[in-house]
Amino acid sequence: MAGGKVSTRQKMINMMYLVLTALLALNVSAEILKSFHMVEISMDRAGMNIDKKNDGTMAAIAKYHKDIPTDPTGTDVFNKSLQVKKIADEGVAYFADLKEQLITTAGGRKDGNPENEIAQASNIELHANLMINQGKGAEVKAKINELREKLLAILPKEKQSLIKSDLTTEDPKNSNKTWESEMFEHTPLAAVVALMSKTQNDIKNTEAQILDELKSSLTANVMIIDQLTPQIIPVNGTNITLGNKYQAEIFLAASSSRSEASITVNGTPLKNESGIGKYEVTAGREGENKFKAVITTTNSSGKKETYEKEGSFFVVAPLAVISATKMNVVYIGLENPISVSVPGFSANKVDVKCVGGNLKKVGSGGEYMLEVDGSNRTVSISASVEGKLMGTKEYRVRQIPKPTPMLGSIEQSGSVSMGQLKSANFVLTALKDFAFEGVKFTPISWNLVYQPKTGQAQVANGSGEQLSPEAKRFLNAAKPGDRFILMNIKAKGPAGAVPIPSSLALEVRQ
After folding, report:
1. Positions of E strands within 127-240
2. pLDDT for 1
3. Is the distance from CB of 441 to CB of 404 less than 8 angstroms?
4. From CA 503, how far away is CA 507, in angstroms rounded?
5. How many CA atoms lie within 13 A of 173 on its CB side?
6. CA 249 to chain centre
7. What does the angle CA 226 – CA 231 – CA 237 come to, to the nearest 5 degrees?
8. Which CATH class is domain 325-398?
9. Cα 445 to chain centroid, rounded
10. 10, 159, 280, 300: which is deepest, by most CB within 10 A?
11. Bridge partners of 442?
12. Contact, 188 vs 105, CB < 8 A?
């Protein structure tokens, strides 16, 4: 028996042959001859199963050749498969004729039924005379070797060793007997006929292995394409400004409905519909949005293949622009946030310039910070793409509003209660209802004038937010009719120290 990995069917065939050989050493009784007949029938049925398998492989190769007739590899494999089938069929027919000749010489089958036992199943002379004396055995041996060599020659030399064929005719070791004498001398005819059936299956099994190898070489790295879809891929986006060109690539896209591909975008799996991944994402950022697609699929040989592609799309804000034209204001001493975008173009394609201020880019999405120093009454910002002016915006330059002086929680001049005055511990300079969040003024210096209802006025000087001990003493001594004035306030803001022109005048209620 041949070594290496063989199919379960072939293992069964080999085992039956071992049983057959063992039976030859026993006295040939009717039961043994019956067993040989059963082995013959089993061999024939196994051969039919191999035939079905080989027909299926041939059909697959033929279909590939028909579907892709221009593929030179497919044509070569198809032609070689026809050669394999022709050689195997001729070999099987040769041994079928030889079996029929042996059976006919021995009187045929019992009752003339092709499935019945051989009439002279125990005869050991007729076939021995033909095979040994007349030299037919040497012809059979040569035929088996010829079949093996012809079939293997269909494959490249580096692949021939992959085929484990039982088409062998080695002489017995440690014996003077030849292969022919071992097979045909002192052997009942029923055993010889079963041996012929086994040889036919050996031919078919070798044929099956070679066809499988041919098919594998054909489809090892082939993805079967069965769908063609027209595609239009924009080169420069689908939002084009007036005067610019729209560009697109138009082609037939091939795909496989049988492909069990894994498709991800930025690591997130997509739903696969007939080999096509559907990508959908909500646009959340203006400008160019990039993504990475990865497709992993398995070809017909089981090898995984990975394909990567980067894509991008452009996001533009709605084209309706609504603005309060009288409020296009930027403030001295602040970093004024400015957003610049041109619909249909990514931020890195837009050239932004500023006249009358200092414009700094922050991030990569068209965001800027504008600083002005008050030397100009207006500042102008323009946006261009590839040298073409796309728009200009002008802003008025203004000082930051002056803050409101506060004594504790008191922020308006007028009458106050003694309780409000005595609870105050701080001087504050609050910027009320300003559009910019986080802009703060901190008191640097101030004067608190205390004018009792009767007596001389007194002044307490202070710095920072905390009331000085002297100022706090004035507030604690407050009586109805007394007056207090918070004045000469200076505060530090984003543009430095500034005077607060307004004062806070208070009178203690009766």
Report:
1. 227-234
2. 43
3. no
4. 13
5. 0
6. 23
7. 150
8. mainly beta
9. 66
10. 10
11. 492
12. no
What is the DSSP pairing of strand 427-430 with strand 358-362? unpaired
First vs last C-alpha separation in the chain = 125
Distance, in Å, from the CA atom of 404 to the CA atom of 24, rounded to the nearest integer, reads 121
Average pLDDT over residues 472-491: 93
pLDDT, tens digit (0-9, with 9 covering 90-100), for 211-220: 998 988 775 5
φ/ψ bin of 481: left (φ > 0), alpha (ψ from -120 to 50), beta (otherwise): left
Residue type for position 75: T
**The pLDDT of residue 25 is above 50:** no
Q: CA 19, 25, 27 angle in degrees (round to 5)?
A: 110
Contact 485, 504 (CB under 8 A): yes
Q: What is the DSSP letter of 349?
A: G
Strand partners, 255: 227
Supply the DSSP string of 273-299, one letter for each residue: ETTEE-------SSEEEEEEEEEEEE-
In the block, which residue shows the tokens 């290496």?
Answer: 4
Q: Which of 227, 247, 225, 226 is nearest to 236 (CA)?
A: 247
Instruction: Please state, in angstroms and rounded to a whole number, the distance separating the CA atoms of residues 117 and 110.
Output: 6
Q: What is the pLDDT of residue 113?
A: 64
Handedness of CA 2, 4, 10, 13 (dihedral sign): positive
- Say how far residue 87 (Cα) sits from the centre of its chain: 46
Which long-range contacts link 153-159 to residues 24+ away (Cβ below 8 Å)?
154/80, 154/83, 154/84, 154/87, 154/210, 154/214, 155/210, 155/213, 155/214, 159/213, 159/217
Residue 474's pLDDT band, with cuts at 50, 70 and 90, is very high
| CA gap 287, 292 in Å, rounded | 17
* In the predicted structure, residue 320 carries a pLDDT above the cut 50: no
- Nearest residue to 341 (alpha-carbon basis) of 359, 363, 317, 369: 317
Which whole-number Å values give the CA distances from 303 to 219, 222, 261, in the listed order?
Answer: 11, 10, 12
Token couple for 48: 């039919």
